[in-house]
Structure formats: C-alpha cells, structure tokens
Design a protein that fits this description.
With about 300 residues, this protein is α/β, with parallel strands linked by helices. The protein is about 30% helix and about 20% strand. Bound molecules: flavin mononucleotide (FMN).
C-alpha cells in the first residue's frame, strides 16, 4: 500500500493548506516553477514557493552576487524579481491551472509594503498561500532585519493577517539572536505556520584584490554547511510552538529531509540542492516514499517529531 504523505500546514486557517506530500521548493531557488516544468513533473511536489515578490520590480544587487564555498553557496541576489503586478498578470493565471499549490514569498522595506502585497494577493486564483520573508531590512527602523526582532516581526504579521485570509507562513532568519522568541511572537500575531531557515549571514574575501568577493560585502550562506545548524533550530522551534514548522537548510537527499521531519518539521523545503540537481525535490520525495514503504510507515504523521528524544 502506498503510504499517506499528505500534511495540513495551516490547520488554524479557514481554507487550510493541505499538501499531497511534505516536499516544497525553497523561495529563490526554483523561480516561478514554470522554469522547471519541462525538466520533471513538478505537479507531483507538495508545493512550490516562488521567488520573493516586492511591490515594484527589482533588479537586485550588482554582480558578483553568488559564490560557491566548500560546502554551500553564498548569495546576495538582493530580491531581483518581476514585481507583484507582473506576477498577478503573467504567473498567477498559469498557476491557477496547476495541481501543485503555489505559495508566494513576499518581501518589503516597510510594514505598509508587506500589508499592501498581502492585500493584492488575497483571493487571487493560483495563489494558495503566502510566505512572509522577514529577513529584509526595515528601512524605517534604520535597516536592521525585521526578522531579528520579535516585536517588529509581530507588527508585520499582524498587518499581513488583517489584509488577507490566505494561509500565512513566516520565513524566519537564523541570524535572529533568539529565534524561538521570534517564532512564538509570530504564532501569537496570527501566523499559520513558520518556515526556517533563511540563509546565514556570510562573507568571503579576495586576498589578491584585497576586498570582499561579493559586491554587497556579505551575503547569505545556504547548502550542506548549514544543515546541522538549521536542524537544531527546527528542533528548538518545533518544541516551542503549536503551529506547523517547515524545515529548510541544506536538504539534498531524502535522509536530510527525514531528519528534519523527525526533528518536528511537518514539511520541508529543498533549496540550493536544485542547482546541482534540478530534480532534487522530486528525488527527495521519492526517497521519503521509499523509506516509508521499507519501514512499514503508513502515514507521515507517524514520523513527524519521532526523532526528538532518545
Ligand atoms: C540564490 C538564492 C536566492 C534566494 N532567494 C530567496 C528569496 O527570494 N526569498 C527567501 O525567503 N529566501 C530566499 N533564499 C533562501 C532559500 O529559500 C533557503 O531558505 C536557503 O537557501 C536555505 O536552504 P538551502 O540550504 O536548501 O538552500 C534564496 C537562496 C538562494 C541560494
């Protein structure tokens, strides 16, 4: 018998967000989904999370903005995207014909911008939920990331919550001094789920030219290097909140994904792994299914959090 991989990631929400399986693609690493449609059957995935979307189109940071490291990637793309108007006109109508739910990752410089994005995306066919990227600098509050401060994140989420009835997932930054407090504040503010982690602040220096490699000086580290770090944060957050936790960070194989699920994640996201293997997310899904069959696990629910204690 095929195991039941379905999972509800927004149980508090009126419409909810029921995924056929727990495997999603991480924002910024899978475009708008359309780019990968010719490579494998993307409709088999649990959900697709699109590139961060801002009110106006953005060109992103100047090159170089991507660097391969010993065990991951440093990126400083800087929210390059087509803007919400083009997304509504060109992408959402395509997604509306898809079986796989698409979650739109939103980013802003002020609370008002997040609120306006949530309002514009509310009730749009083809948009099944929002992922709020709070790793962006708060322009009005001097540029510190919204996500580093529990009170600031709560303000963003309260505003977003009021502006939409869509399921709202909040993408937490690992650079927050106390991610558990931020997760609790977000839950209190009305989030339906939390996803973690975004990339870790990182840098590299060109020792011959004597300057940072990345034009923006620092970027975000992702990939295999961050998996054990992110896993520990997922473990901690899953022990502190009641809303579903979605794990992300260095997942390249089914074994990686299963570690997150057993740490307490209800679902997972595959990010940088897609760069070396475009069908990584599908390989992870097939591997999870194979593991469950081999171990006689009938439902995903049996293993969520199953590895938390000795
Ligand atoms: C090139 C690149 C672009 C990214 N863009 C976004 C983004 O637009 N919004 C966001 O929330 N996260 C973004 N991320 C972070 C990923 O979604 C993910 O949280 C992070 O890469 C960790 O997962 P991984 O180790 O599996 O890549 C980006 C990551 C990379 C590598």
């Amino acid at each position: 018998m095929t195991p039941d991989l379905s999972v509800q990631i927004a149980p508090k929400n009126k419409t909810g967000l029921l995924l056929a399986n727990p495997v999603m693609t991480a924002s910024g690493t899978f475009g708008y989904g359309t780019e990968y449609a010719g490579l494998f059957d993307i409709q088999r995935l649990g959900a697709i999370i699109c590139k961060a979307t801002t009110l106006e189109p953005r060109e992103g940071n100047p090159q170089p903005r991507l660097l391969e490291t010993a065990s991951g990637v440093i990126n400083s793309i800087g929210l390059q995207n087509i803007g919400v108007k083009a997304l509504l006109k060109e992408k959402a109508p395509v997604w509306a014909g898809w079986k796989v739910p698409v979650i739109v990752n939103i980013a802003g410089d002020t609370v008002e911008e997040y609120k306006e994005l949530a309002r514009l995306l509310d009730g749009v066919k083809g948009v099944s939920g929002l992922e709020v990227n709070v790793s962006c600098p708060n322009v009005k509050a001097g540029g510190a990331a919204f996500g580093a401060d529990a009170a600031m994140v709560a303000e963003v989420i309260k505003a977003v919550r009021k502006a939409t009835s869509l399921p709202v997932m909040v993408k937490l930054t690992p650079d927050a001094p106390d991610i558990v407090t931020v997760a609790k504040a977000v839950e209190q503010a009305g989030a339906d789920a939390v996803s973690l982690v975004n990339s870790y602040k990182a840098m590299a220096i060109n020792i011959v030219a004597r300057h940072p490699v990345i034009t923006n000086t620092t970027g975000g580290l992702s990939g295999p290097a961050i998996k054990p770090l992110a896993l520990a944060l997922v473990y901690e957050v899953a022990g502190a909140v009641k809303i579903p936790v979605v794990g992300c960070g260095g997942i390249a194989t089914a074994e990686d994904a299963l570690e997150y699920i057993m740490a307490g994640a209800s679902a997972i996201q595959v990010g940088s792994a897609t760069y070396s293997n475009p069908r990584a997310a599908l390989d992870v899904l097939e591997g999870i299914t194979g593991f469950m069959e081999k171990e006689g696990i009938k439902s995903l629910k049996e293993i969520i959090g199953a590895g938390r204690g000795r």
